[in-house]
Amino acid sequence: MSTEQILSSDGIPLETSLKKAERKNKIKAMMLVAPLFLFILITYLMPIGDMLFRSVDDRMITKMLPKTFIALEKWDGKELPDEATYEAFYNDFYPLAMAKESGKLYQRLNYEKSGFSSGLKKTNRKIKTFEKNNYKEQFMATHEIWNEVEYWTALKNTAPNWSYAKYLKGVDLTFDQDRNIVEMPEDRKIYKTLWLRTLKVAFFVTIFCLILSYPIAHLLATLPMKYSNLLMICVLLPFWTSLLVRTSSWMVLLQQQGPINDLIVMLGLTADDNRPELMYNVVGTFVAMTQILLPFMVLPLYSVMKTISPSLMRAGKSLGGTPFVSFRKIYFPLTVPGIGAGSLLVFILAIGYYITPALVGGASGSLISNTIAYHMKSSLDWAFASALGAMLLTGVLVIYWLYNKLVGIDNIKLG
Amino acid sequence: MKKISKLLLALSFVLSITTSAFAVTVVSWGGAYTESQKLGYGDPTAKKLGIPVNWVDYTGGLSEIKAQKEAGKITWDIIDVYAKDTIIGCDEGIFVEFDFDKDFSPAPDGTKASDDFFTSMPSKCAVGNILYSWNYAFNNNNVKGTPKTIKDFFDTKKFPGKRSIYKDAMSNIEFALAADGVKPGKGGEKVYNKLLDDGGVDRAIAKIKALCEDPNGGCVFWNAGAQPPELLANGEVIMATGWNGRFFNAQMEGTPITQVWDGQILDYEYFALVKGGPNQADAMKVLREMTSTEGLAGSAKYIAYAPWRKSSIAIIDAGEPWFKDGKTSMVQHMPTAPANTKSYILMNPDFWADNQDEIGEKWEAMKAGL
In CATH, which superfamily holds the domain spanning A191-411? Predict the structure, then answer.
């Protein structure tokens, strides 16, 4: 074995010059991916990071009422705070009220304890007339929230800069006065119901999609080219149509005086004045979502079925298996990767759906994503919307992980 | 279909702001109402002042403008808002405070604006626009018998079938208490007193929940004013609460519906000027013109809402039949007509400005649990 170093023509060890050349290539390759990487970073990773950050960031109140929190540090929490604390609050709140910047405070504190909003709004209007000194008395005369220790405790509880309270709220839990985690009061419990409803809808839609897609995909894969092409267009055409158009079409079809109901009445299945309700309930949600998500199940199934050689089924039959046995023992196991891919796709898409259920689902059509949209657009509780979003994201990742454990992600075939 | 047309509208809006950068953007409730505003005073104002006026639809609330402010890019100039939102928006510095008599034109006879308007404004940031009513209507073909009272709206034994109600608690909990036996009293004071009592709101929400969960009843929530007449027309629901002008216009178009005037909520509607809007100076000019005597009277040609100015009412009275078809007298269809004000609740904006967050939480929880 020679230990002599191999040199390249210019005297540098070959290994070094090779590395150098490779590094150049690597940088070139990196440059090619850089636009995509930046794009993903800016439009995908950074917003998600920002969202996760928002869901735990709770510095706003401490920033808005700095003096109050300094004064509250010494407060024992048993009786109403002293005059100095009220004065500190006055000194914080008065400039905010004058600059008309106190709006965010009402909302944020009202999440902490119901009643803050009305109390602070009233205070906001009255504070201009406050006289110097005796702030405690004047506050207490303005609104009853200032007579209650609970509100001060709630205020003090917002002192930490980071909080996971929004995540607790997402599963119907909350903090009580002494920072113990307790269940929400009965008339505020919503989220467990919503999570279960969302999972239920996604689960059933996946099952329906699977049942409907399997034969279609099989036909697509086995029919002669000229028929299967036509069928493929039938599958793809709705896929290319806008989601809103399809949902609205379903609304036209499903309404009580709509064509489907007309048909049912015409066939004599039910009386004219007893038309079934196909919309504004869970039936409408299932029907519309299943139709809309169908292509996501058909396509992976098709691509897997296409690769199964027809001779395998023939072989099964020639070995004495009935069509059912050969299907169960040969064909079906071979399609499992497609079923897995399709189900995973449909389930994950269904779990985040909100326009369709909101339009055709009526009162029962409010799912967890509707709530996220509501908090983003209407209540403007972005922190809570972010927390719910993060929980949904975690849920999807958990499903992905479970799937990987049970079936193996390598077994997924998308085409 | 509504969503698509909204989408198209939004698209045309985006296109139109790129072409006419100096237009004033007015945000309102869409459908027949925006149409009445556009034809009644929007287009005439634009023509007179040479300032293009864009109309954009929304479904109420201050969250969108707050989000615009938060994002540092305000695109709206004038918003058509509920009274409670003028109060909240004024407190939070979203809207411009008016110098009322200076900012708004006097009546033709010289009466200053503050005297020409029926009452004083709920806040310094509001200028009155219309008086309307929240009432309910039913589909003549689907209801056996004739509902006459607000109690009948909740009576699923006598009138089985689905109802459509507003997406938010506002209006619903007032109706619920009135139907639950609380006598409204003068201007509905007693209803609001009851709502302020402990358990009053819970009682009202429970009544709505019972209606929605009743197998003979059931609710469809509406969020745009055009929906109630539409839901009634296509037979999706048998009764719907809504805005009287929308019902009136549907009736005029031949929809077989009847309005019920009992326990209805008389409410005022306002314009507010966005502080720091893209075109604030022009917007003020447009707003002054639109809320002039002729302006406000103009919109009543297209919808059964009462204008705010006494002088506008005088014009309409003198000009009857005022409706655009040239044969319908308007005043009798307005929510202020004596026949329509026998038993009404006057909307209390302070109640809603102060309590909407707390009530909203309970309301959303109820809705989510249906």
Answer: MetI-like (1.10.3720.10)
